[in-house]
Amino acid sequence: MSGNDENPEIQAALAALKQSFAKKIPSKIEQIRHSWESLKAKPDDRDWLCLLHRQTHTLAGTAATYGFEGTGRLAGKIEILVQDALDEDHAGWMAESVDKIDALLVQLEALAQGAAEEKDRAMKVQQPGQATVSAKQNKLIYLVDDDVDVLNAIAMQIQTFAYDVMAFSNLALFSEAVERQTPAVVIMDVMFGEGPKAGIEHIARINLAREQPLQTIFITGSHDVLTRLDAVRANGLAYLPKPVLVEHLVETLDRLTQQVVEEPYRIVIVDDSADMSAYVSLTLQQAGMETREVNEPLKLLNVLAEFSPDLILMDIYMPDCNGLELSKVIRQMDAYVSTPIVFLSSEHDLRKQLGAMSLGGDEFLSKPIEPWHLVSVVTSRVRRGRMIRKLAETDGLTGLLNHSKSKQRLDIEVARARRENTSLSFAMLDIDHFKHVNDNYGHPAGDRVLKSIANMFKQRVRQYDSVGRYGGEEFVVIFPNTDASTAKLIMDKLRVNFNKISHFSEAGEFFCSFSCGISSFPDFDTGTALNDEADKALYESKEGGRNQVIVARGCQ
Amino acid sequence: MQTLERILYAEDESDIQQIASLALETVGGFRLKTCSSGLEALADIQAFEPQLLLFDVMMPDMDGPSALAKIREIDAYKDTPAIFMTAKVQPNEVQAYLDMGAVGVIAKPFDPMTLATEVQAIWESVNS
Q: Domain A403-551 belongs to what architecture?
């Protein structure tokens, strides 16, 4: 086993694993923070205490194994403090520990922030296409247009979305500014006095001298394909027609500047040979994916429900039931109609391969297969699959789950709560006097309110809570493993917070509130009942004066 | 001495599973069957016929020590060497695991580059 330290393949695999773990650290700490805040709000709740203990224990062990010793040490210190509360009688513990844990958690968060940047610099060579974390947090936008009216109008609008905007009316000033500091995104007009495509040509020239091209959005009055092509060649990431719709522009900016931590791809491997599935599994894991191996095909359906994979890799010839039959079964289930199925088999007969596709497969790969080939097929299938699913399941304006997906998710979570014998809460809320907002401040302002509430929820609820837009100004939140009184606590906190957000419009600054109704499982034990009762409670809170949260009668 | 090839590994945390797989399969060259709980380990043991058991201590459903006790009831595995992995490695804690029938305890966090050597060393000490 000597000499492994220098083995470049192992080092690369280890580096890839470490990198994918590093990306997960912030969300792990966020979960710890959430449990801690919840415990502070309800110091007698042993569930939060146990959860906090498990989370810190796990992070202490995993982080150090992956080489993040500082993170592991801090998590370990918190774990020991929490352990005390578990071991002994609790009284007085909170008062003694609150400052210590608060301080440790702040250190942990600061360390994770620093580590992420450190890691990203170190890994830059491997991921040339990705901007660094620090660049993504940079919300500096350079806006270039020689039409001063357009310039001011756009600049003012984007600023309300918490971007720092510097506006330039000529290309020379812009070039100087880029020399001094690289912006997160450049918004560039195409036509200038210098020529009809001067904006594109200018960006192309600047990019020639740069290691990483500027992230650029072009705005233009011209619609012809050749100009678009030039924009793409100058590394333009988006191309928006004038007059520019601000919502559209902000959405694009959000996408380019947000730090999106993508979940690892989840792949199920169905093969009766444990050797084969282990090999495939390792190959995919080394590319940063999560895998489950199923060696008895009949167990696949259980794994699908529990793991909800992005893609299924399936052998064709297996005992009990073959891959073709199995894929037909999968395709008959609504939930998996669009899950890609890739066959992996030693079948070389093209006609049989095509036959396999007609039964619901998406691709056919022949064994033996090179690791890079496998990884690249799986990656492109999953990426496209996720994109399509996202479009079908989310609301375009807010990026939250849409109505039908929200209902579906509620049913799934109710089933899970029943199976695991846990609680669940369902909140339905509605922005107060929203029609008044639209009438007085205009629809763009109304849309911004909807987006701001969506963003607030996305940032403030736990990773496993689900937020959906039911329609109009109505939203829902599903809190698994949470009773009604805890859900009310959380929603009240969010309600107060939302009330503080100031919204801007041309007619002036204004504030909004929301009313909310909550129902919970097992007091109401179907998705429909939860929905109806939350709706009634919402109605009650509207009738009772708005800007409040009411728990449905009959809920604990 | 018999060469160590097949290890049944139980660990609930997928991050640890991944890095341990790399450490034991890619670095160490062992064949690994990975399970996410003690229950899964019980379900998989007969088909895999492991020569060595490597169990995390804290797992949901069924923890490492309970899983080992159950496995000891199966005749073919009543003597299969078992190693626990845990963050609790005070001398009295280690002794408690050895009393439960483990032949070794590996401390968490572990170094992925040397984990396989550690396992191999315990294997050799048992078989010598």
A: 2-Layer Sandwich (3.30)
